[in-house]
């Protein structure tokens, strides 16, 4: 059956669909009329309806929709989810590109354009895999859900809404369609976005002792956070797929409000921390340890006053190699490529983070080098994209087999 189904993959249509998607400027820009997810979502919804799928078009907020499509085999069985987002990051300066960022130019076996590999090529691969399965009339059980959300590149409101509406209930496994060179990523780092502030008292730069300098207090705090990072690395070690956890100050502001002046001691200093976690760490424990650091610094210095605010967090994920969805993708990879799969991890976060939190086993895989997204001259290799489509197709057949 598998070879017969693979023959229904239309490679020319896969390329055409990828290029059509890349040409749609689905950069989320609230101020611009020509760049939003709605155009991409309407195009995809129409395409999936023509395929004969049951399509749901759900606005998360005005102008920012999710598209959900179902292929139901009308026999009891497992539910497989393919997830790929419609939004892309900004193209930046178009002059930095060798091609039109939204031209979907084909050259030397590649398709160029913003989103070509992150992740419109992989969205096209998932759609093409489902299209082949449907056209073949494959005798499967259960159902396939295509989840095509908005805002993966932002605060991930699309996937959160998908889960909130109950779509993730009963899903037995999910393939997160992201550029990973078709490696099987079975872990993802967690993330905490934290704001810390130190408070002082304004003073003239010529008479600093009449004030309280929040900047020097922030310097002490950041040194203590660096020590916390080292302790956590010693405690949990280097993860085989994710590497080391980290606590990284990425933004410093002083003063927090108003304009800085070289001859004024400010009243506040703020640091933004990008904290990346790995299995073995607990976010609540990290938060408590950071609060203890503030308390200890306050005991050492009666003028030390600080606050901490966790503004967003995403848990780390880890899926066992023996989980059914991982086994299905691994077996599909072997059959398509003739090679053993390479297991890896995602250093950032994807929508799969929240699916995992909702209890769905996930594996992240797709065409494209992970170092290409968000750069000028983003591209996807056409041969690799075809390989991805075959892997997605066979993985679905194996996962939903009636045997």
UniProtKB/TrEMBL annotation:
Ranges where the Peptidase M20 dimerisation domain occurs: 186-301
The chemistry this enzyme catalyses reads: N-succinyl-(2S,6S)-2,6-diaminopimelate + H2O = (2S,6S)-2,6-diaminopimelate + succinate
Q: What is this protein called?
A: Probable succinyl-diaminopimelate desuccinylase
The enzyme's first-digit EC class, named in words, is hydrolase
Q: Which NCBIfam families match?
A: DapE-ArgE
Q: Which organism is it from?
A: Planifilum fimeticola
Q: What cofactor requirement does the entry state? A: Zn(2+); Co(2+)
Q: Which CDD domains match?
A: M20_ArgE_DapE-like
- Pathway involvement? Amino-acid biosynthesis; L-lysine biosynthesis via DAP pathway; LL-2,6-diaminopimelate from (S)-tetrahydrodipicolinate (succinylase route): step 3/3
Gene Ontology terms for molecular function: metal ion binding; succinyl-diaminopimelate desuccinylase activity
Swiss-Prot/TrEMBL GO biological process terms = lysine biosynthetic process via diaminopimelate
Q: Which family does it belong to?
A: Belongs to the peptidase M20A family.
Keywords, A to Z? Answer: Cobalt, Hydrolase, Metal-binding, Zinc
Q: Which InterPro entries match?
A: ArgE/DapE, ArgE/DapE_CS, Bact_exopeptidase_dim_dom, Peptidase_M20, Peptidase_M20_dimer, Peptidase_M20A
* Signal peptide as annotated in the record: none
